[in-house]
Amino acid sequence: MELFPPLPLSEWRETKETLHRFEQLVGKIRLTSSARRNHWWNVPFHVTGRGITTRPMGQCDGNPVFTIDFDFVDHQLVVTTLDGTAVSFPLMGQSVASFRRLTMEALADLGVHAEIPHPEPFDLPDSARPFAQDTEHATYDPEHANRYWQVLSQVALVLEEFASRFSGKCSAVHHFWHTFDLAYTRFSGRHVEQPPQADSVTREAYSREVTSFGFWFGDESMAAPAFYAYAAPEPEGLALEPLRPVAARWVPQNGSHLALLPYDEARALSDPRTAVLDFYESAYQAAASLAGWDIEAMASPGGVTDQRRLELQHH
């Protein structure tokens, strides 16, 4: 299968907009049915061999243990409890409203009582419209949904490879449903005091100094998919640091800067995987060096931290 297959936003925009809202609804169930983790690590989806999963949840809220999975091979939503009982329904042919109704019915059939305190999209143009009233978004092209999952899977493995080089505190490689991006974050351990006006999501996400890396599929503000990296807080002079490969660049973003490598430019290179790893590494070295991280102490070449083994490898 082709590494990084084409997925222009213009070709699957309607499916993406519908799927984004499907995922936000399920993500909000995950948010209320899982134990809170630092930096919201309990919230994102993880990639599976057939799609994406909430991972097991419940129990802490009085519900049975249950999991919700998007299957992008057979194109179904599958709700499963720990005893193996499952309820599923097709993703094709659903509006956001019908998807919500069928999801809640599936949960009820399994004895799961899920509450969604804010039953409308988060940070989307129709954020004032409840999911139950959205019959506008009703496009699901199975080919595009499957391609989206293929790209998620391939990029996730590149990020896992990049993550293997770092032994400090870091996040999983996970898929955030609110921004519809795949992300991996490294932490220096330093506390960051957020301004009083910062919202609660931002305050928790950026309570420690980070460098973050990921991929998104494009949106209204940036129509092309891209690999990205940034630092928060951003060290002075970061946007003057060189990036690799030559197609990568720093772009202004909400008063700071974002390192971008356009997906189509990366996939056109002779070795896209190596190019993306080089991009992430160059962004990390730039940000961590300027911020004064102990880069050598937090390194784990090839996923190894055993000093004896590292010495043997060098001889």
UniProtKB/TrEMBL annotation:
Superkingdom of this protein's organism: Bacteria
Name of the protein described by the UniProt record:
Ava_C0101 and related proteins
Q: Which organism is it from?
A: Streptomyces nanshensis
